[in-house]
Amino acid sequence: MNSFLFTRKRASTRSLILWAASALVLTPVWGQTPADSSTNSAASPTAPAVATPPPVNTPPPPPSAYVPSGYTEVFGDEFNGPSLDTSKWWTRFIYNNGKLDFLNDEKQRYRENDNHVFADGSLQLTARKVDDPNMAKPAHYESGMVRSKMTFKYGYFEARVKMPPGIGMWPAFWLNSDSSPDGKVNWPPEVDVFEFVNNGKEDKTTMFHMGAVSHKLKDGTPGPWGGDLLSSDSHVSMLKGSGGEYSGTTDFTQDYHVFGLLWDTDDTVTWFLDGTPLMKRSYKWVYTNGTDAPNAHVLLNLAMGGQWAGRHGIDDSKFPQSFDVDYLRVYQKTGEEKTGQSTIGQDLYHAPSP
Known about the structure:
Helices cover 6% and strands 36% of the residues. By secondary structure, it is mainly beta.
């Protein structure tokens, strides 16, 4: 979700914390240690975290019409509730030993205070304005996120989602590299399936950004990731780095849409909207030094504010609001499955009382 590649008139709002991660210094850039911010308010539940088993005797969902031929589902969640399946998900970023609850200048802090709501067969990652003295700095919003415990090398990643309507909102669906076998965390690589930013002016509810993180090295030479454009749809304009911006007439806050990403074994990535390919680029899942990076985990989160999404403020009159996820599914080529298990995380979510 490092969006410095995709904005035309701003500096990076995501790169600093992830560059810190690449140096294995996992402290947010504003001088606040993550531990200062990751404690829930006094009203938070105190019961120990209990893994919620998936529903039993539930028939499998019909396969998506957009899945490539020869692919098998290796991970998924239909989000039918009644609570988050903690055998599949963590609720914070991998950094700071799995407790980091924001990146850079975002105004929300990720919490487990009814920020993962299940209604109408969807997971609603819910944001609220709060008055919480435990929040350091000017953070007056709580929100929700999920990060997969299973990790993947290659595959087709798909989510059916509905965007929140308020100005200042920043939902995203993305892949980030997990930890290496020695427990270290580094960055890039990263692929953003979408970042939906509504600042009311430059970025509106009929637009979204997508891309893969690539940049020049310190000596000015190209990085090892590639990122060459191989094809694109007429609705997509190219942005700095390996990004693209979709702009159309569909208001993504009005209904659900299917966003897909094919990360193929030939080291290409292709972005899809409702089954239509939008952009294809070369991309190698490697570290800055060119060595293979660990598998990717999947993230879905509702951020807000900052230099990009909050450029023209946050509309407090719209709260609470949510980023609604009908399902998340991951498919890989049959017989070529490459999955793993993330080992860095904290089980902070508590199932709500009946």
